[in-house]
Amino acid sequence: MNTATTNLTEPGFNFAYLDEQTKRSIRRGLLKAVAIPGHQIPFSSREMPMSYGWGTGGIQVTASVIGKSDTLKVIDQGADDTTNAVNIRRFFKKVCGVKTTEKTTEATLIQTRHRIPETPLNEGQVMVYQVPIPEPLRWIEPSEPETRKMHALEEYGAMYVKLYEDITQYGHIATAYDYPVMVNNRYMMRPSPIPRFDNPKLNMNPALQLFGAGREKRLYALPPYTTVKSLDFEDHPFSVETWDKPCEFCGATDSYLDEVVIDNEGGRMWICSDTDYCEETQKS
Amino acid sequence: MSYVAVKGGEKAIQNAEQLLKAQRRGDATVPELGLEQIKQQMSLAVARVMSEGSLYDPDLAALAIKQSWGDLVEAAFLLRAYRTTLPRFYYAQPLETDQITVKRRISSIYKDIPGGQQLGPTFDYVHRLLDFKLAAENNQSDYPVGEPTEGGIPRAIDTLNPEGLIQSETADDVKADDANAENDAEIFDLTRQPLELPAARDARLQNLARADEGFLLGLAYSTQRGYGNSHPFAGEIRVGDVEVVICPEELGFEIAIADITITEVQMVNQFKGNKTLPPQFTRGYGLTFGYNERKAMAMAIMDRALRSKEFGEQIQGPAQEEEFVLYHSDNIEAQGFVQHLKLPHYIDFQAELNLVRKMRAEYEQRSAMENGRSEEIGSEETGSEGIDSEGIGSAGIERNCRLSPIVH
């Protein structure tokens, strides 16, 4: 093959690094995951040339769905220029030679760690989340066979008890990120360690959302327009953070702000964590 | 002052890689380490990397050790990441370890055994004195050459068979004891299938064979000190070369494709019996690539410890907890997840910061109110501004961030 894209890639490796057989087996897992929204599907996760825990689940999902015509965006903490995002983008450039972008609107495939872009996603876009621990019940019940049973029986009372205990102790639910959700009114799911601020974006999202946990060898998915509800109580509705100041770069008041320490006297400034959103807002 | 968050671009990553390469080489006036030198003179490191990297290839293992500055876990990781790209053609026939060309073979349960005890090259009875002569170069050593043993060596613990005192074990038994033996004919393949629990013995042994040596060693040790119920004897330890044989379907006959060095350990444990099994000895099995005795022994002890449930024994320690051991034994997984904490986490930290500030403000408000109450007894002064009736601070108490309800 001597197309323009393959010329850019590292020789000696298959397109997107994984062999076709492996990619196919991951896609089969993803199809199951899409068919049962929020349900965790075991898959034969492989060793990747990056460490487990550094996004290998997301990387394998991206590798198995990416095609030559895709435009890839990779973010970590909402930013395109953090080391891990740069490294993963560099990897896919090397083994796929696909087009990459920093613009959310231009991307067909977005791999992320810890954030969902502020710019709303569209139909046809695919979000890939890197997941460290896929099991929402893990801190309540450490045993995997037990938690699988709890999911099968929809036995989620223990989680509500934990949230209730938070309320009695602190007056509110004390979970700031990786806040558990109910998917399609059936499966409890961990949204990956995104701040709770991003949870509402999961709900009825027009994009396909895929989750990959490499070390834990699990896949799960949210097909487009799936209902996703953050756990709460009628008298203690789910809430997200708001800031009483705008982003100091772009003036946005609707984005997740990141606190940056600017001097040794405790001086701080608050800026958008989504670098693309911040730039676009500055331009307009 | 304008501030740009510290962010590493592609350039920084490339520079770091260059620096890594340069420092690996060290002083350029010192001769570079050759792969053959590593393979020959650090063969135990090569053996460990092959075992934990789950690929028998001394040349690639030596390369991995050189590339990783001698960090053996990193080297095993390099080997794993490479092996996963290799196509899978055949599963080998079970190794015939009784047909081993033996380099070392001992049994601690009998003074003498058919086939003889053979110490071979071992650190066991060497006085651990630093050998300063070795610091000088040009070391040459001769050793007495014995007669090579040919034609098979019976297993020491098989001598217990005629009395039925050792639990018999065949390939079928291994599958038959399993909790989930639906697909009898298929061998589980840990490199191609996710581990599911309860694990069959083939899955467990594969997991233990590539598990971190230190992790297994510590756990095996814990069973000896009372966190578990293991009283093992070293039934037999053998080190040597065995043939790897495949039987391709399209040929219909067996062909030997390689000779590999292995360490095999069979531990013998006393078992008092239960309702269905008479008192007898039970086995723990360990096998590693290369000469890797400490790991193989720890593995055999752990295999037996993890059979507690099968024998109806009480679970007394973490070494007997299948899920605890098998999910945490892989150092490639463990090193990755422990070290991923180096990645940026500032978004989650920001979320936690917001939450802790909010909780802190509520805490201070509560204590101020309580102080206020106690002061009220002596004075007219009231405490801080009141909080709402449920004792929940909800308005304007955080410095920069607050939670606001979402309407579903």
Structure, explained:
- The complex is a heterodimer of chains A (284) and B (408).
- Helix content of chain A is 28%, strand content 19%.
- Chain A has 8 helices and 13 strands.
- Chain A has a 7-stranded mixed β-sheet with strand order 1-9-8-5-4-2-3. Chain A has a 3-stranded antiparallel β-sheet with strand order 7-6-10. Chain A has a two-stranded antiparallel ribbon with strand order 12-13.
- In chain A, a hairpin with a 3-residue loop joins strand 6 and strand 7.
- The N terminus of chain A is likely disordered.
- Chain B is an alpha+beta fold and 408 residues long.
- Among the domains of chain B are: 70 residues, no CATH class; 206 residues, no CATH class.
- Helix content of chain B is 35%, strand content 13%.
- Chain B has 12 helices and 5 strands.
- In chain B, helix 4 crosses helix 5.
- Chains A and B meet through helix 4, strand 11, strand 12 and strand 13 of A and helix 1, helix 5, helix 11, helix 12 and strand 5 of B.
